[in-house]
Amino acid sequence: MKGASAALDRLGRASLGSLAGVGHAAVLLFDALRFGVVGWRIGQPLRPAAVARQMREIGVDALPIVLLLGFTVGLMLGIQFIASLSAFGAESQVVVAVAKSVTREFGALITAILVAGRSGSALAARIGSMSVSQEIDALAVIGIEPVRYLVAPALIAMVVMLPALTVFASAAALVGAALYSAPALDITVGAYLLRTMSLLDPGDLWQGLSKSFVFALLITLIGVSTGFSVRGGAEGVGRATTRAVVLAICWIIVVDMVFSFFVNR
Amino acid sequence: MNAPSPLIEVHGLQAWYGRRRILHGVDFSVVPGEIRVIMGGSGSGKSTLLRHLIGLQRPRDGSVRIFGVELGRASERELLAVRRKIGVSFQGGALLTSLSVGENVALPLREHTRLDESTIRIMSRLKLEVVNLGGFQDLMPSQLSGGMVKRAALARAIVMDPRLLFFDEPSAGLDPVVAAELDELILRLRDALRMTIVVVTHELESAFKIADTITVLDQGEILMTGTVGEVRASPNARIQDLLNRRPRAVQVDADTYLRRLTGEEA
After folding, report:
1. Domain count, chain A
2. B96: nearest CB among A135, A140, A143
3. Is residue A20 part of a domain?
4. Which helix H or strand E contains B15, and what residues bound it?
5. Could you list the residue range(s) of the whole structural domain that residue A139 is in?
6. Interface ipTM
7. Are the Cβ atoms of B94 and A143 closer than 8 angstroms?
8. Which residue of A126, A138, A143 is in closest CB contact with B94?
9. Residues of A in contact with B84 (CB under 8 A)
10. How many CB atoms lie within 10 A of CB B85?
C-alpha cells in the first residue's frame, strides 16, 4: 500500500513537473514573440546581428553534416527500396517511393534530429551555464531581458534555418538515391532526378516544410526552457544538455507521427 | 538644511523560499553618497536582500523603493529605467564568457545608448583603465585571474555612470592584497564619481574599511544599523559573536536542517 502511494506520489510530481515545463516553454515562446514584435517599443529591441549569428551557428555551420547525412539516408533508401521492390518486380516504383518518403518524412525528420543534437543541446548548455554563473542575472540587471537576448534570436534563426536545412537535406537525399538507383533502373541520374521532379507535387514539399517549422519551435523551446531550469552547477548543465536532446528527439518523433497521421488520412 | 531623500527605502520586506521565511520584515534606507555595508554570516539572508534590491526578485510582502520607484509594482519600462541607473558587481563577476572583456564592458552602452562604435570603444577602455585593466579589453574572461574578473565586472557595472552601485561579496575568494586593492577602488569610486554604494559582505576587515554605515543582518532580521564604531561597540551578543567569529551555541541537527532545506519546516 505504501509502495503504491509512493508510486502515485512520484507520478503526480512528475506530471506536475511536466505541466510546469510546458507552461514555462509557453511563457518563453510568448515572451520571445513579444520582444520580436514590440521589443523596440519597450527598450528591448531584437538585434539583427544576434539573429544573423544564430542563423550562421544553427544553419550555415550545420550545412555540411546535414548534406552528408541527407545524402547517406537517400543512398540507404535507394538500396532498401531497390532490394525490397525488386522482389515484386516493382523497381520502377523506387523513384516515387524515395521522392515521397524523403520530401514528406525523412528530410524533415533527419534534419530535426541532427539539429536537436547539435543546436538544441548547445542552447541548453549555453543558457544553463550562464544561469549557473549568474550571467543571466547580470543580463537582467544591466537591463537586457534574457529572453530577448538569448531566446528570441535563437527562435527566429531556428524557424528560418531548419526548413532551409530540410530543403538541402531532402535534395542531398534525392541525389544520393539517384546515384544508387539510376544504374539499377538503367537510366541516367539526370533522368532519375527529372522523373522525381515530375512525381512530386507542392503538397509533398509543404508537408516536410510545415513539419520542420513545428520541429524548430520544439527544439528551441525545449533547449531554452531546459537551460533556464538548470540547478546544481556543472553537473546540472550536463544533465540539462542530455535532457534537452532526449526530450527534443522524443517530441519530434511523436509530433511527426501525429502530423503524418492527420495529414495523410 | 533638509536631509537628502534616500535612494533606497526598504519597508517590512519579507522573503520566502517555499514555506521557509528568509527575511523577517526588513526596514532600512540608504542616502545618496553613502557606502552602506550589509553584513552578516552565511544564511543570514543578505543575498536574498540583495536580489530584492537589484530587482531580480520582486517583493511579495513589504516594499523596496529605488529612486522612488516601488519595484514590486514597477512596470517593465520603469524597472528598465531604474536598472539603467544602477550597476551591480556580482560575486563571481558574471562576465559573459562568450564576449571579450572589452565587449562585456561595452555591452550596456551598446544596448542602451545610440553612441557610435568608436565612442563606445573609447568609453569602455576608459572604464577598464579606472579599474586598472587598461589594455586587457581583447582578452576573454577565462584568461583573467579572479581579482581581474571582479575588476572587469566592476568596469561593466560603472560604464553607464550609475548613481547607485551594488557589490556582492567583492573580496570573497581573493587574496588579502587583491581584496585590499578592491576596497581602495570602491572608496575611490565613491569619492571620484560620487556614487552611492551598497556592499553585501561577510568579510569584517573589508566592511570596517569601506563602510560609512553598517547594517548587520542575522537570520533574516536586522540587528542594528550604525557606524563602524557603533557596531564594534554594540552589546548585542549575536553581533559580538559575528565580530569575534564565535560559533553559534545552538547547533542544528542534520534532520532539522534537511527538513528546513526541503521546506517541510517553516
Report:
1. 1
2. A135
3. no
4. strand B8-17
5. 47-263
6. 0.85
7. no
8. A138
9. 143
10. 16
